[in-house]
Amino acid sequence: MNGVFAFLLVQASLVFVQADFKAECDLVPADFVFLLDSSGSETTKGFKTQLAFISNFTSNFEVGADKAQFAAVTFSTGVHKNFYLNEHATQASVLDAINKIQYSDGETYTDLGLNFVRNNVLQANHGARPNVAKYVIVLTDGRSNDNSKTVQAAMALHNVPNVTVIAIGIGNAIDVNELHIIATDRNHSFVVNNFDLLHTLEVELVDKTCTLCGDYPADIAFLIDSSGSESGAQFDNERNFVSMVTNEFAINPNDTMVAVSQFATTSRTDILFNQYPDKDSLLNAIARIHWMNGESNTHTGLNELAHHVFQVKSHNIHHGHHGHQAVTYGPRSESAKIAIVLTDGRSLEPDQTIRAAHQLHNMGVEVFVIGMGHSVDFKELQQIATDRDHVYRISSTNDLAAIHTNIVDAICKLKVPPPTTTPMPTTTTTLPTTTVKQACGQKPADIVFLLDASESELAEGFAKEIQFVYNFARKFHIGPQNVQFSSVTFSSNVRNDFFLNTYSNRHDVLNAIQKISYMQGGTNTSFGLKFVRDNSFKPQNGARTNATKIVIVITDGQSADSAATKHEAQLLHHQGVLVYAVGVGSDVDSSELKAFY
Question: Could you give the percent of the chain with pLDDT greater than 70?
């Protein structure tokens, strides 16, 4: 849990929070095109607010030929290309280019802008990449001059492969029906009352466009070291690691499938691809895998993957009184094929091990290898893996949980359709486990946010709270075996937003955070703390006996009853709950906040 504590202490210590908290999105490549209304109704001030908005949005992404690319176009009476997708290779360069975009004034010929994007910006010679998600983000403050042409242009843009159109209307002069038509669908159209509120859309827009993991099918095979040196707790750590990685993905025939094999003196396969088509049955099967014991014949395990796991074969399955049934198991033809090899020592037959690894490489299997302990041969690990970036070294199996996020992120980069003209995103590896900010060690955490929704916050201030919570939560891998989150808001009364076991994955938790609404009222912090103590950490609401329990209180003022607040904080401490307080603004009572610790 040291990783969690360090991160919490950095993000949620006793400070007056005034800075913006940026999301991060750096896993799956995407092409972004900003189409900006530069007509007369925008005014210079409104146009500058648009530029600030797209700058803040861009700062959430890593920029590069295998990451996010950005282009910008302005429209009014005519169209002006500011920069194409392939003109800027760094985030700093893109931000500098955005800052130089000029306001042009004129009419609102939205159709011209949409057509220019389709016919020019989204072309390969201007940097558009095949098989990469493309987002066209349209910002406008009024009706187009020619609605019929705008509708035609929008329909033509929708027909471009891999393109999603997001339409943002600003102000009261918007034609909402036209906005819905411009967007890919109603879920991708937004309206804000004025330019000053444009920033409130940033979190939701990032979430809609930041794909944390590709959706290309992946067949992932784990090869576990089950030799004599891996008995007891060491083998349990390996098996738990397989479960942790598996739990991060959607398990179904259209997304991710998992197989598990072991090696010792001989090898065996415990789970074949598509043998268990849903996550629950797969995780239960992984939990039943038992230790083999024996010598370290790594080559037998690699051959098992090459000759059996990554081959489509028919198997006779016994069904009791119903006899045998022929079932076909194996990888899919259109999928990323990935092997994750865990070993804690040198192979007994190094030449055969290298030959078996090369066979997997030649089959197009991406091979990751994790060397555990000090007896591994680093040169041999490099030869087993696809390349040096696919090699991980850790001190012991106790560190497996800490690097599981590295493995997940590496797999996510491979879950992207192979491009026809550009290379697959390079897999990068952070070897020292101490730098993995997402990892929480082997002990999970139950984290409850207690959010001040009193009238002194104002809607804009509360939106910043939500942004902080959102960006905090997205840095963790979320699930029943990892970190769980809950949210409670308070003002005059208390409202439970969701319990620890309401959502079991990061996508659902982040969506729920975005839907938390502002309440108004007084600042009854003690009521919120009491609710958390009485309800949030109950087993029936998802609290786990083996988890560290943490409450993060975010407030902008003094509570209505300071003595009761301090008393409730102490009662939480007595239950073994760690309480952190984030004071927002200049009206907080620092002495009261210190009572939370």
Answer: 81
